[in-house]
Amino acid sequence: MGTPARVRYARVEDAAEMARVNVRSWRETYRGVMADRVLDDPGLPAARERFWTAMLSDERYRANRVAVAERDGDVIGIAMAGPSQSSGSQWGTHLYVLYVVAAEHGTGTGAALLDTVVGPDESAALWVADPNPRAQAFYRKHGFVADGTVNVEEGVREIRMVRISSGRGSRS
Questions:
Q1: Which PANTHER family match (predicted)?
Q2: In a domain, 57, yes or no
């Protein structure tokens, strides 16, 4: 693989590269799960770049933690966690995004990104596509368990996975 991946907090100038990784990861991971019209939409990269620009520049999202993983100057992974939108939940943090390009699966990059945006002892929740056995196994390895909650959005079935920390830690 060459040099080790470097994980750092994202900056607004990373938005275009983050969008590239986001779209590439969706196409690699969700072909056959997500509608082709979504994955092949020529406007998808620009829409994702607008999304990431907003996440990194809009005051409304300043509580989110957003990170990128780079290898040899190229962004190879992205992650974002922030306050849970579920009132009364046992977890204070929600992992909204964690994508690593397929060529980097199994290198530890995903784990480094996860630990950057969600502390290893922090209670958190996430939604993961089902089926997506590789991602589900990754999250189980990091202490997440399916809680039985299912959501279907735009034809994609997702399951919620949660990790309840005994210390119920959170980051500021």
A1: ACETYLTRANSFERASE, AMINOALKYLPHOSPHONATE N-ACETYLTRANSFERASE-RELATED-RELATED
A2: yes
